[in-house]
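To whoever is covering the structure queue this week,

Two jobs came back overnight. Logging them here so there's a record in the thread.

Job A:
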Amino acid sequence: MARLADYFVLVAFGPHPRGSGEGQGHILQRFPEKDWEDNPFPQGIELFCQPSGWQLCPERNPPTFFVAVLTDINSERHYCACLTFWEPAEPTQEVVCAEDATEREEEADEGGPAQLSPATPGPPGQLFAPKTLVLVSRLDHAEVFRNSLGLIYTIHVEGLNVGLENVIGNLLTCIIPLAGGSQLDSVEDGVRTISLGAGDRQVIQTPLADSLPISRCSVALLFRQLGITNVLSLFCAALTEHKVLFLSRSYQRLSDACRGLLALLFPLRYSFTYVPILPAQLLEVLSTPTPFIIGVNAAFQAETQELLDVIVADLDGGTVTVPECVHVPPLPEPLQSQTHSVLSMVLDPELELADLAFPPPSTNASSLKMQDKELRAVFLRLFAQLLQGYRWCLHMVRIHPEPVIRFHKAAFLGQRGLVEDDFLMKVLEGMAFAGFVSERGVPYRATDLFDELVAHEVARMRADENHPQRVLRHVKELAEQLYKNENPYPAVAMHKVQRPGEASHLRRVPRPFPRLDDGMVQWIVDQATAKMQGAPPAVKAERRTTVPSGPPMTAILERSGGLHGNSARRLEVVRNCISYVFEGKMLEAKKLLPAVLRALKGRAARRCLTQELHLHVQQNRAVLDHQQFDFVVRMMNCCLQDCTSLDEHGIAAALLPLVTAFCRKLSPGVTQFAYSCVQEHVVWSTPQFWEAMFYGDVQTHIRALYLEPAEDGDHVQVGELSAREDERSALDVASEQRRLWPTLSREKQQELVQKEESTVFSQAIHYANRMSYLLLPLDSSKSRLLRERAGLGDLESASNSLVTSSMAGSVAESYDTESGFEDAETCDVAGAVVRFINRFVDKVCTESGVTSDHLKGLHVMVPDIVQMHIETLEAVHRESKRLPPIQKPKLLRPRLLPDEECVLDGLRVYLLPDGREGGTGGTGGGPALLPAEGAVFLTTYRVIFTGMPTDPLVGEQVVVRSFPVAALTKEKRISVQNPVDQLLQDGLQLRSCTFQLLKMAFDEEVGSDSAELFRKQLHKLRYPPDIRGTFAFTLGSPHTPGRPPRTAKDKGPSLRTLSRNIVKNAKKTLGRQYVTRKKYNPPSWEHRGQPPPEDQEDEISVLEELEPSTLTPSSALKPSDRMTMSSLVERACCRDYQRLGLGTLSSSLSRAKSEPFRISPVNRMYAICRSYPGLLIVPQSVQDNALQRVSRCYRQNRFPVVCWRSGRSRAVLLRSGGLHGKGVVGLFKAQNAPSPGQSQADSGSLEQEKYLQAVVSSMPRFADASGRNTLSGFSSAHVGSHVPSPRARVTTLSNPMAASASRWTAPRGKLGSVRASGRSGGLGADVGSRLAGRDMLGPPQANGAPPDPGFLRPQRAALYIIGDKAQLKGVRPDPLQQWELVPIEVFEARQVKASFKKLLKACVPGCLFPEPCPVSFLRSLEDSEWLIQIHKLLQVSVLVVELLDSGSSVLVSLEDGWDITTQVVSLVQLLSDPFYRTLEGFRLLVEKEWLSFGHRFSHRGAHTLAGQGSGFTPVFLQFLDCVHQVHLQFPMEFEFSPFYLKFLGYHHASRRFRTFLLDSDYERIELGLLYEEKGERRGAQACRSVWEYMDRLSKRTPVFYNYMYAPEDTEVLRPYSNVSNLKVWDFYTEETLAEGPPYDWELAQGPPEPPEEERPDGGAPQSRRRVVWPCYDSRPRAQPDAISRLLEELQRLEAELGRPPERWKDTWDRVKAAQRLEGRPDGRGTPSSLLASSVPHHRRSLGVYLQEGPVGSTLSLSLDSDQSSGSTASSSRQAARRSTSTLYSQFQTAESENRSYEGTLYKKGAFMKPWKARWFVLDKTKHQLRYYDHRVDTECKGVIDLAEVEAVAPGTPTLGAPKTVDEKAFFDVKTTRRVYNFCAQDVPSAQQWVDQIQSCLSDA
């Protein structure tokens, strides 16, 4: 029984003590005046009566009522019911508050809660003061309080004849039952009718179960105010301990909302700050750091604005605001959506019927009270579903004297499948749940509705999930029970209470509320108390029972295991493997192991493993041999590697007894247990795991403690009993014991308590041992691993010293010193482990009630245990080192290039799979080549991994992955699992810009120092301090990378002496390094008197395989005319300029004035622009001295120079750096832009304008009078729809000088005046007028925008300047007459770099994508924006091509002129000129535009230490990608194959060749690279130039040749550039694991396949078929195309016949020629109709035709043809499009004229080489003896210079000489270098040869 009300208080308005305008509450009277013993009077009631503050009011407000809640220090809640009414203020009160009555009036209007009905003011000037009646109670009967206080007020107002003292006395002495109507004997006990003695009657119904909250209508109102989603989010916020603040203008609504939210949280109790109505004076409480649920009047909303972490629910506005920094986790799916839908069915039953055509008659909606219970029922079901099976995770740690219960959170989450769920995780960690466990975990107690629901209704709820009507029925059933709990006897609920009359508050009450008689009230209270003491105490008889546990838990959502579904087959594999291991069938076990390791990703397989291993343990011990031990440990490690630190599935817990059971004998008396090999898992260092394990074991032992006696009792029924006992859970046993506890004697109770305590103590000792096993490393040097692990790392962060404040620390210290340990690290580990165990012991023992003596004893024992274990481990470690190492596979040595040296020998590593599926046998199928076990080698050139797959079922495949050291872009350390024994190992991830990724885990035998050395060496090789340290330089030179590179100084002399010795007679024949197309006279006007630099002397190689390129005829130079260094360099450029007719290098200074352009040597000393070549094409009219000034206007001094001229439209393409803003752009800038250095800027701009004018004047269209018709002859197909109209307006004179002179007098236009006014000085004005003197080319656009680059207007400017939009900002829109600016947006180099990084990650991801591969690959590809950049480049290039093709010249002036400019200019030339699409042309293009014009290869490739910070920016690779895109769209237009582009892409970053090193020709000359030091050659030395290498290679194999090459004569390519038309280059995605990248051709050639004819044992021929695996084999080599195959076959057959094999190119050319001849007799003729182009001089392309049908549609694979009848007009174009056969042998005709004598001779090869028949040619003109493979061979194999011949003498046959030949047919030719042995076919021919050679010598 309990008092209905504890205190009655009367509070009135009083002045504030500090005299401020605010009043404050004063307690006038309180009854009883003495505090109750069991319930002291709560403090601060005055504040809560008027939460908005005490204020006077100018009018009478109606009375208000609300219930505030105060919480005392014992967390008891006191309900304060407050009824407030207003009385006229007493004069004293008025005086106090007169000064700010007005203020208060406003405040009352705003903040007063009492504006409920329009109030009528009293007499003018009259103020009213509030007075409050307060009832304080511990019971929540709001209605009864309202009625009781209302009655007191009514008596006062209506003046009823009832004593207020009696009423209040009765109220305070009213006693009602606490709860549990069902537990009482009669209705009278459950329902209490009370009367306060004023003719009133009230019925109080106590709820049936006091554990269920009372909500009345509050939950329904909350949903009405806020809606479903908002309430759900508040619900989750309150559960996950966030701060929740309610706002409303109504206090009653605030307390209702808070009560409703609390009712929803049942069965959890909210244990934080709970203040439904917070007074204004206490608003600072809102900034408390702890969670809360608080209600505040909406008037104070402004004060709540700055709260950053509070969720605000506005009840009046219906909104919930969650701050950005707060994350409220939602309910786990599917519960969230299910709850939402059920709530909407309850709140809006009409929703289901809204769409029905014939809706049923409307159903009665539930009453508000019933709806409230239905909503609560939904949440009750939700909790039952969330916490279903929670009792199975309770650990009974102690039963007596009080139950101690712990909850195994990890197991609960794991079994529910909700480990990842944020919401449940937070709920379980929260205070409310801790309270739930301690309150509801008790096994023997009273049960309520929730217990029943969670135990018995779970199955029903699962079955109902998909049936909304059944769910609704269940909800209604639960709601009935909740309703019945609140209203057990609805029939008797009749109240009779007087109320005041209508508007009674407005009547003038004759007197204020009277002062009550204290004595009388106190007497009534005392009387009642005395009567109560006489009565027997009413003890609430709780009906306690064993709480039902319910069915075991299931996953909340059955998640399929994905790839690792736990199929029976997988479990079978695990079982078989284990049985093989224990039966000793190791080979079988080894085969199954990879499958087992894969299966162990699944949970069931891991459980199965632990169960199987348990079967093999007898008496807690299982001794294995070494191999068995190794297998078991590997499987255990694999099991543990996927365990999280919490071990939610209990795998680590199941393995814990096993790791101390399985062992192996190392030597007599030394045993190694499995735990020493499975320590590297995070779970062992997690305190929560050990606690859960400990409590689980304690529970088992305590259960056993109480089950033992029962089994001893009756021997007959032992069997049945034990069976029954086994079924009883620990909770059942505990429940039984709690029931018996009161009946036991005191001694018995003591005994049980002692037994339990000692059980816990013994377990603590056991666990201290176990923990030391798993935390102390076998090898103390591995302590760093321990310290890095989670748990111990945290411990160590506290203090690194050993002497800690704890006793354990000091003991550990003393032990270490005693045992003589000097190794600080070991002691450190021991100390850390001791501290970890002590912390654990402290926690579990205090929670489990272990006595302090025992705890002290434990603290003393722990250091001993650890110390003993360390000593044991020392012996084990020592012995384990002596074990023979497990046989590891032999390291496979990689194949190296001739000059490649190993820097670091193989470190054993495992190559792990990265994000590419190829090698792992993913969706693409194929074997799991990765992970592979092998070694990583570091050489001077590459990082190479070679190894074998770890999966034994894959077979003996060698896996090679390598990349050049120079291509390394990112290196990061990783910690990864070793794929064999699943231990955590240090690893390294290396990513390269050649799209390779090495993700490696070091083998345990590789020490950390070796790994570190590897990283350091790699870094040193990747970023050498100087470019001379790169592989291309160290190649073939004696010094290794370790030594400092030689300086340039000593390099020169050695070169010179070498070249002097080797080169004797080079004056007669000058060899060229490049294959030249035309003869040309190099410029000789510079440095006439300068002696020739000796470095440049080209020697003629006398190698076996001599390059034909060294034999190209060129004009002999007299020594005085030797080219200087700078002009020698310009070979590629000059040849191309001459081909294009852009200028000649005449031998005199006189220039052909008719030529519009000339080659200027102004930059020969690189004085004007370091990054330009030495010779430049400039307009004829511009003097060299003016160029210096022009260059100042451009970035990096890169002024506009011509790089190409169209053969058709004669338009020129120019390139330059971006403008400095002082030049032409300055013309367009705003008027008053001040310019620095007035005169300099002026003169610079002037020169610049002159220069551009000269360029325009040099164009034929504008220079010729007839220029206006130049375009009329062109077909519209080329110009598109914009054919330029003839320009009659252009008044250009034929003489450019005269033309410019005539313009000086032209009238000054607008621009001129702008310039003149903007700058001082008359010169600028003239320039302006000169430029403005033409009429405009077209009206400016209406919108003032610059012309759209995509829309080429029919009226074209003579010159378009393509510039950067940012750079051309502020440019005026009206175009000049002759040139026009085209601003475009371009990306910067850093964007290319960032984009490439993302592209690398997309194509070679470091780890697997979370979602299916294609989707995520495409998404990351899109994110990289690489293809968008390619699209932009192609788009701009096609624009420029269109402009050039229509006759306008274009100047590309972007960024610094060496990145995007180079890309665009090169692409434009490639698209416009078919010559650049040949092998030689492309090389020329790269040499000219990229190398000579100074693309910064070293800077962009970060070749040296200086460039390390800038990173890799693949501008050149991007250009190659663009070429690849064009190649894909026009496969017949390119002579080179796609492999050629990949080869360049690989080697531009590899630093194997010197071609792509350094940033400009200037730097190359400084290092002596441009005149390749031929003197340094030693034998067949490796190529320095990539072009030389490719030439050699293409002679041997057609790998760079495109058989589909059949170019159109005048084809200008216009590729599609939309992203949808672009393809990802397979260079980025393909790989060949069989041999590594195929771009180092010497390495890529695998071992030759045995021919089919070889028959082992004379059997049938073996088939040569083999499986070709994607990503393993090189597909082009495994399945070559038909033509390559036929050429190979021809070579093989020739070799078999003993004929010298013919070059593939000759064979190919012969086939094409034969095809041409065959084409005619068949009557097909030349298919000119098919391939005719719109240009008159088209080339007829003949080819192989595959007839398709009678109609005669043909597919042309054009091989080649001769030129069409040449006319002078097309001769220059023919030169560009010469047949491919002549590309390779252009000088055949020239050589045939010089053949003085020829025939076959046998020649003895070099040392140890055989005799071979060769075709020799004696050339008297060139004074040389050349030899060829056979008569028709066009390529010379070697040269003997007759100048070096000393004697010709008869010879003798040597070993291997032809047998049938007479001895006299042998003769020797002795030169200064060596002796050549020859043998003719017979004696006469030998004699003739000797005579011919002698005569030649004598002629000389």
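Job B:
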Amino acid sequence: MTWDKIAVLFLQLLWTVHRVTAIHRHDIYPYGMLYGDVALQEGDDETSKVITLTKPMYFYEASFTNLYVATNGIISTQDLPMEKQYVDDGFPTDFPVIAPFLADIDTSKGKGSIFYRQTESPTVLKRAEADVKRGFPDATFTPTHAFIATWENVSAYEEVTRSSRPSNRVNTFQVVLAYNEKDTYALFLYPEDGLQFFGTRPKESYNVEIELPARVGFTRGELSYFFFSRTEGPYYSVTSNEQSVKNLYQKGNIGEPGVWLFHVGNRYSFQNVVPAQHEVVSTKAPPVLVAVFSDEDYTEEEYPIDPDFQDPTTTEFLEPEQDSSLLERLNQEAPLGQSPLQPSVSGPGEFPQPDPRNLPPEDVTQPQRPLPKHAILQVYPNRVKDVPPHNSGGQVFSVEERVNFESGVIHYSTDNKETCERFQQQCSQNAHCTDYPTGFCCHCNSGFYGNGRHCLPNGAPHRVNGKVRGTVLVGGTVVQLDSIDLHAYIVVGDGRAYTAISEVPEPVGWALMPVAPIGGLFGWLFALELPNSLNGFSITGAEFTRRADVTFYPGNQRLSIVQTATGLDTQNYLNVDTHLQGSVPFIPPGATVQMEPFKDTYQYYPSLITSSSVREFTVVSAEKGTETLTFQVRQNITYRDCTHGHRRGLETQELRMERIFVMYVKEERILRYAITNKIGPLGAGETEPENVNPCYSGNHDCDTTAQCVPGEGQLFSCQCATGYSGDGRNCYDVDECAEGLSSCGAHSHCVNLPGSHRCQCEGGFEFGFDGRTCQDVDECRDQPCHAQALCSNVPGSFHCQCQPGYHGDGFQCHPQNGRPKTQCEQHRDSLQSRNDGVPRVGAFIPECDEEGQYRPQQCHGSTGHCWCVDSRGQERAGTRTPPGTPRINCDEPVYPGRPKTQCEQHRDSLQSGNDGVPRVGAFIPECDEEGQYRPQQCHGSTGHCWCVDSRGQERAGTRTPPGTPRINCDEPGRPKTQCEQHRDSLQNGNDGVPRVGAFIPQCDEEGQYRPQQCHGSTGHCWCVDSRGQERAGTRTPPGTPRINCDEPGRPKTQCEQHRDGLQNGNDGVPRVGAFIPECDEEGQYRPQQCHGSTGHCWCVDSRGQERAGTRTPPGTLRINCDEPGRLKTQCEQHRDSLQSRNGDVPRVGAFIPECDEEGQYRPQQCHGSTGHCWCVDSRGQERAGTRTPPGTPRINCDESGHPKTQCEQHRDSLQSRKDGVPLAGAFIPQCDEEGQYRPQQCHGSTGHCWCVDSRGQERAGTRTPPGTPRINCDEPVIVPPTQRPETVCERWRASLLQQYAGQPDSRHYLPQCDSSGEFNPVQCYGDSSYCWCVDRNGREVPGTRSHDAVKPACIPTVAPPTMRPLPRPDVTPPPAGTSLLYAQGQQIGVLPLNGTQMDKQRSSVLLALHGSIVVGIDYDCRERKVYWTDLAGRTISRASLEPGSESEIIINTALTSPEGLAVDVARRRLFWVDSTPDKIETANLDGSDRRVLFDTDLVNPRAIIVDSPTGTLYWTDWNREAPKIESSSVDGQNRRVLVQDGIGLPNALAYDSTTRQVCWADAGTKRLECISPNGTGRRVVHSNLNYPFSMVSFANHYYYTDWRRDGVVALSRDNQSTDEYLPDQRSHLYGITVAPPHCL
């Protein structure tokens, strides 16, 4: 061989080494039926059914929710025309297309297959993310969804003739669309040998020997131009001739031949497709030279941990370094003999970047998921191996699937096996322990959930407490968070989690609003569990560590969140500490943050849970308007898993956050998050809403302390949570301690908790090794006695005794012949050994030196305060220091600095409480330069101000509320008396808020105590002396004659009070047949007592308590009460322990068991307070089914009877509600002889009848109104067919579609129908803003047509279909106090107010109105009735707020579209608007005397209000051509236009009685404005509303319903605070009004 040939061969070999192998078929993304793909029907021109994306995808600048896959190598966002309209034409097409290989393809007769699927598989998404990173290194992209379509071995269309044979050439190619909420990327993959034909022949010109090359690229399709014109949209073409098609598998643009990547869509701005810019060329390399590209060139861990996750201060994500030498070799490569790819205007570039990493295919079945390589999961604390810990702790793992390795964390042998016998105490008291071959596991008992180590009752609400610490950088400001409080409340029954962080300073309070993941942890922990799923607490229990890394875009701020759960506290609440470190974007003060619902996928591994997601939020501020930002959250949760038992089958779950509300309250410095959460398998919860069981949709009426138990279809039942009792709709805490249900043992006492209880050891005892048994504490181990004393341990305590030759109390011993005790020693010893020899807990004990003198510095052992004293032990003024501060040197004089004044001491003691932390919300006094109280003091939290005297005492009559002029405190006024100080201190508690239910003393004109005082809440009255002290024996219960407090008399003894209280019952009448005790001359109990009615006699002690075993029946010899009796029985001990608890005072309202003469439990027991009775066994345990409510016949406990059935319990609970009186007008079910529901039920008040099933549920279609024949309930009911006929809207739409040949554009109008086939109330041309309102028949409502961006506020006129089961149709009254009433379609809701704050926890449904659309609503405060308009029923109705009241129709004729409604309380008149005939009418409150006020010059009247004091009527007309607000007198006189300029959609109207202005909320201008009735003083209150519909004014707040948020929004008049309430059932809210307890 010659040297030149050798050189050529060497060059060829060298060239081959530098070539890159093309992608193989097995390396494309996994596909096929095994992976859940759908196969397209075989054929020449087939199109898939519409594929509805789970999340919208951006293509170019537009968002699309539908995709279609076609045979001919394309994907479109709309249904495709016939192939002849595009397959043989050039590029671009006139409709949107993603074309990996557009040609005339044929799959008929088995010639290939086409597969497609949506996926959220973490494996696919992580691979797509890596591919995008290769092509766009600077992009920050984390896909949340992907769509994969694969054409496998498909053929070109061929017209086979006798002279020609079919070709065997087939093509295989794939497209992957990866996207998130912001971006979309497309991957085209052409495997090696995947393209065997490069074009197809046109069908119409088949005899002509031409072939059209395949078209590859993207086109946006035609776009609307002006209104009736179309223009060609942007497009991007990759191929132009046959060679460019061949280049598809020979080249690539992300470093691998056959792989092409393009950026094809963006939410914000997108001009055209952008290709990746790294071209690479392929040839087939000899196998022997493949080893040149060894693993050394591509050193990369299989599961890389992002390096900058190890340091939360890093502000950018780090990328692994490139192998520069390899890059240089490839960049120097020349394409010998290769034709470069010829793209269109902007094709792929020519910069190669190799990356031969092959990711594993998508996994289908994995019986058990292994841990990621870097997760070393030991018991706490959790740390990552070889990574030094830092202040935020831990790392966030990036976890892939299909990893197989041994974790090697824990090994077990029979020698060190842990068993239940040895370690059962590690389980919860509500769990059981199970032994397994390698160890034990804890499992929660039935009725509880958790991981076994920690268990909580099913369905019960839960609370979380903790602290938040850390450093957060906001803009250029560093904010330190020092142990501020975090509290969360979770309604577990429907997954609502409310989180509040207090004392959050600005600006971090505003900036942390988007960081909902702080509160999102609690949403995941206690999410509502869909079928086959578990929430977080069921897996982790109460001990875990959650680490999250949040990255904000576009600013790349990074925030690390570490949340550590440390168990359950003594109240059974979860403790979670939160640490924040990093930076967050600056958010302007006063801004609002909105977050849309989203889903997050959680991956589960042994002892590790991970997730990663991208979320979007919108910031609305006056400075910047509306901004949309995003952040990425990557998190892991490590916990202690039990590896011995059966493994859970969880791999992935999907957390759905359906409602997210965030808010920062500047005045209170509170940051709030509210999130509604559900967890289930991937894709769960996608069912149509009408098919979702109410337990999973949240549309049930179970109590917050109850669990909703789903049944078949829409059926469900409510079951009170463990530890609660009731019917499920109303549940009450069971006091396990009072009912004797606790598990507490000896030397412990029971403490009741909500839904549970805990056992607490008595003093001197502590829990033993098992955590449950109380054992004596050997205090002598700590040598508490003096060195010359002996210590003796006794159960629960100890004794110290000085040794012989010494005297003292044992804590201090002195020689017998020594000096006498000094004053200090006497002071000390008197406190250390009080009357009973037990030191006073928490008392200050002075310290004496060796000489017995007071030490110069004294400290309080409990509080930590220290101070200096003189030789007499008196504190030296100005020397006291709180705990944690430097102490004063008591050997130095305090001067020249003066001692602290009283004001300064008062102020400093509050500013640094017991633990050195200021008391949140407490009043801090203000001192002047001399240290004296300033004459005027103000409460920083409540805003109240008042004048004080020189001692800081409030001067009577000087307090002013916030926002009112303050009093001049320099003017004289008499000082407060003791009574006034007492009264004012209770009226203004520690935080300035009166104590609810507290006794407030009454003072006379001189400020002295009135001789007689009465408790406003309980009604008791008594006499007092001049100091306000109660005079013994003068107290009288409510309803009895009061004592004349001007007459003297000795106080009554206990016996006399007992006797007189029974002789004068609540109403002053003696209780018939009651036992009356007998008192002697001194007022003491006589030793022997007898019952005047029964004749029984017994002995009592000095307290009147019966002595056990002394009772004798009538006619028998009485016992000599001076002799002792027998031992108490169990019943007598039970009774006496409850009758004399806590200082011998019986527990008010507690159940006291009754014992017979032998001391045994009487067979029938009754609760003296509630009136319930039941039968018990010999142990006093209740016999099931024997309980009867008060006022009903009692069961004969000597007979064996069956327990009550469900029907009987239902009936009896309604017949005896509240003091034994049946609910008036309520439906009472009828039961047969067996206690079962009768097949036919009738309402005694309304006359309606219906059939029921065995559970009492109404059978559909069986209800008959009064006066009509009843249905035979023994015959089957014919249910109408489920398939309904086409509606008018659907028929009209179908005919127009046919007229437009199935391709309507924006010039064409298509009726929009809802899911029931009815016309949508808003109709528009295409996707334009040219919209109008229609009625139920599709007719346009005049005056509603507009071209604005804000669509008209149209109200539906057809009620939605009725959901089952039906709630009760009667009134559930609101709680006491002021409430908001709001209309929400088929119901009226109640939202109580606490002051002006919305009490969201107590919201409820006032009245369910099926088949209605309630729009207008108002309240009559005199008769406590609510009035409303029903747009669907075309009626006006009312209902009383009394329990069980039902609605009453007062007007049902000549109404078309009744909307706004107003009640004139003073004149007893009703006003309303009817928007279709355009008129305003009035009538009496019962519907009589009806007449028309106005029927001219009205187009779209909506809101109407009346100012009763002035007799003025106001209403809005939202005519889109000329909107206006008008007014007139209530009799229709003096009509005039009040506002007509600068308004758009004035939906809401209210009268502010404080400012005496008319206010309106405009959905068009987005403003809330007010104006005086004379047309002057117009002002803007708020300029950034969403879509208000109705509004009411109360106190200093406006409350309006919002269509954008589907909730109630509260706004203060000074625009300083806002709040929001979102009902669980999300739908439009209409009218709103306020219902005060009395007329204002």
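Note for Job B: Residues 10-19, 283-415 have pLDDT under 50 and may be disordered.

Please reply-all if you pick these up so we don't duplicate work.
Q.
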